[in-house]
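re the bet — no i am not wrong, look at it urself. input seq straight from the record:
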Amino acid sequence: MNLDLQIKDNFLPTDLFQKLSVYCTTLDYGGGIKYGEGTKYDKDQHVFYSNNIHKDDDLLKDLEQSIIKHFRVGIKNLHLAAFTLVNTKEPLPHVDKLQFPTEKHLIIYLNGDSKLNAGTGFYESSDDGFDLNTAIGCYPNRAVLFNASDCYHSPLLYTVKNSIPRFAVIIWFEPEIDL
């Protein structure tokens, strides 16, 4: 596992974070996307709902400024940017599809239960299934950046006692590292 996990609290400027944390709850997330369907990860399907952020949207430029400021990488090529809603009640470790060999995935938590078990778990694959390696809590305005290749992860909503979904922004990108 090549986790290379980086975490940053207070990731976005306060005014932008406050706007996005309200805005994300007003979006139409449409039908669920079954991630992993039709791939070798088919048995590990992860359902999430999304509302895409277009590559020419000024919001993406604002988000990239925070990526550069806190992680010192830029977006060389964009694979996916979206608002997401997750309400998965079972752990479903999965690997996201890659478009670029050095792809990074970023999660910015916007809204939801801020307990540890509402965040994201990162797993080691074993002969017996998966073992939780690292758990990251869903704290508002926390960003989590990780290498996407061979990185098993899952929302950690399966022990939450209420039905509050987790809202986040995800950005999957090829990093520009010479900044």
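see?? Residues 36-44 have pLDDT under 50 and may be disordered. told u. also The longest strand covers residues 74-86. so pay up
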